[in-house]
Write a structure and sequence with these properties.
2 copies of one chain form a homodimer.
Chain A lengths: L2 H17 L2 H9 L5 E2 H8 L3 H13 L3 E6 L2 E6 L3 H16 L4 H11 L3
Antiparallel strand pairs in A: 1-3, 2-3
The structure holds a DNA duplex.
DNA sequence: ATATTACATGAGTATATAGTTATATAGAAA
DNA sequence: TTTCTATATAACTATATACTCATGTAATAT
């Protein structure tokens, strides 16, 4: 396994790691319909301000979101639209795995799908 | 945020978590061309037998791979082909983000792409 | 029966990270 | 300037998890 491959695997793992947290998925889902400031994301996610700020910093570091500071507020938005395609794939997979009533999840899952 | 949504986010996060580890990505990459037993995966990944076994158990728990025990050997194979599609998406994204020479990674990245 | 091969797993350690609390900083308003 | 609002961050705690080492278990071979 070459050094280059090692680095590539590390990068890919770090990318998935950013998506591997329910609170961060909530935040990303909250950004689906456009930019939002931190206070709005705190309300949407139900987390504390400090915790949401930290997750936003992590997501920004992973280049999944971008920050636009206007006045005293910080507006975050999706930097990488393929996030939703990833989630859509995973949702489809999970839905087909789970033996629960898929129809019950239809609204949510279709909301997570980009196309 | 409904209880159903909470569960869904947890599921999706857990799925990504399974992919968020370089050693597991190596193992999954090693399974790209078909089933392999543990010893083979140990060689391919460069990990210890104990550690590879544990990662295999985790991947199986996440339903990404399946196990077929034949004689004294355990053959693992991909249970969820969409893994590679996920990796392909992430690879493309990372490649376009990184300011490194993409051509240098071409072989690896194309190897990770399903189509 | 004993040994060997292949794999799984428990115990223990080290590290990473999610969350909380308190505080810092920066812009806007009074 | 002082105050208020919005956000970021440091310090800390708790938990999860990656890894190693040792051992357990099961199938095969001698």
């Amino acid at each position: 396994m070459s050094q280059l491959d090692e680095q590539a695997f590390n990068h890919i793992a770090k990318y998935f790691q950013a998506l591997a947290e329910p609170m961060r998925l909530k935040i990303l889902n909250g950004l689906r319909d456009g930019e939002k400031n931190v206070t709005e994301l705190v309300e949407i996610s139900g987390g504390t301000q400090a915790n949401v700020s930290k997750h936003l910093a992590l997501l920004r570091d992973a280049k999944l979101i971008k920050r636009d500071s206007r006045g005293t507020k910080a507006y975050y938005s999706i930097a990488d639209q393929c996030i939703y395609e990833l989630c859509s794939l995973v949702c489809g997979q999970i839905a087909s795995q789970m033996s629960i009533d898929v129809a019950a999840n239809a609204a949510f899952i279709s909301a997570l799908k980009t196309n």
